[in-house]
């Protein structure tokens, strides 16, 4: 199963749908080439939703791969490599300083802390909600966050920027979690993302007003710029974000274009970083 709880829930849902659809068929049927066509016919129930259509194929292939690799009941299968039809590129969507300020003027402190931490670290929601004091380390010149990311299991080492330092300094030392709900309770990925979405809309940053759907996950592009300003190289940023160096440079350049108050400084640093990449 995947690492993230939200993803595990989705996998369970699709595994159960798959089991129900083929419960009267012997598992050996998937050794036959025709089984691929039958699975595709089943997937067509969600042809109206490219994302669900792709998800159905992904989970089926993963289950059958497991059966084959563990030598459980099948010797081969023909449901690998389904063509994906859902495509999304949100690399050009970032939180500008103005948008962050607009939300934080309206939102409660706990929501603002989530967004600030996301924009200053680039961590995904699943990593944000489990950030604790044990992840904060002192360095000769300040502090850093050292955490094994939930999605890829990589170690991310992130310098603590001045704004991130403010979040940490306002966190009670007797509370383990850095980010909590309004009632001081642990957050879920959904609650963290939904809290930002709800207050984003209340602050007037709706998809209708902006022309795009600004989400908590879009803070990763903003963080790339923050980290460049904090002294990380493009290669370091790309490695920890899971991007190519070229993609990291493109995201940062876009941020500079949509944030006029930072354009000159960011582009100068980006030019210097690109020359050394």
UniProtKB/TrEMBL annotation:
Q: Which domain of life is it from?
A: Bacteria
Tell me which species this is from: Paenirhodobacter ferrireducens
All copies of domain Tyr recombinase, residue ranges: 81-268
Q: Which Pfam families match?
A: Phage_integrase (PF00589)
- Quote the PANTHER family the UniProt record gives: PHAGE INTEGRASE-RELATED, PROPHAGE INTEGRASE INTD-RELATED
Q: Name one GO molecular function term.
A: DNA binding
Among the record's GO biological process terms, what is one? DNA recombination
| Keyword tRNA processing applies | no
Query: What protein name is recorded for this chain?
Result: Site-specific integrase
Q: What lineage does UniProt assign to this protein's organism?
A: Bacteria, Pseudomonadati, Pseudomonadota, Alphaproteobacteria, Rhodobacterales
Coiled-coil segments = none
Q: Which UniProt keywords apply?
A: DNA integration, DNA recombination
């Amino acid at each position: 199963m995947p690492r993230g709880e939200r993803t595990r829930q989705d996998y369970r849902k699709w595994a159960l749908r798959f089991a129900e659809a083929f419960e009267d068929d012997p598992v050996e049927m998937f050794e036959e080439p025709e089984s691929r066509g039958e699975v595709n016919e089943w997937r067509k129930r969600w042809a109206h939703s490219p994302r669900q259509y792709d998800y159905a194929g992904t989970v089926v292939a993963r289950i059958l791969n497991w059966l084959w690799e563990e030598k459980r009941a099948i010797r081969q299968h023909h449901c690998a490599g389904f063509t994906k039809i859902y495509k999304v590129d949100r690399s050009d969507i970032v939180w500008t300083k103005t948008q962050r300020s607009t939300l934080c003027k309206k939102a409660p402190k706990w929501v603002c802390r989530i967004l600030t931490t996301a924009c200053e670290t680039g961590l995904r929601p699943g990593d944000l909600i489990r950030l604790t004091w044990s992840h904060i380390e002192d360095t000769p010149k300040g502090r850093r966050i050292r955490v094994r990311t939930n999605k890829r299991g990589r170690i991310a080492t992130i310098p603590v920027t001045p704004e991130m330092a403010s979040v940490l300094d306002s966190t009670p030392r007797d509370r383990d979690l850095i980010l909590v709900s309004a009632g001081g309770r642990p957050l879920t990925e959904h609650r963290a993302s939904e809290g930002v979405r709800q207050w984003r809309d209340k602050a007037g940053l709706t998809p209708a007003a902006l022309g795009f759907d600004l989400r908590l996950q879009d803070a990763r592009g903003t963080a790339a710029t923050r980290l460049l300003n904090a002294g990380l190289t493009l290669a370091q940023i790309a490695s920890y974000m899971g991007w190519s160096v070229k993609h990291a440079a493109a995201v940062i350049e876009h941020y500079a274009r949509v944030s006029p108050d930072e354009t000159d400084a960011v582009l100068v640093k980006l030019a210097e970083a690109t020359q050394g990449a």
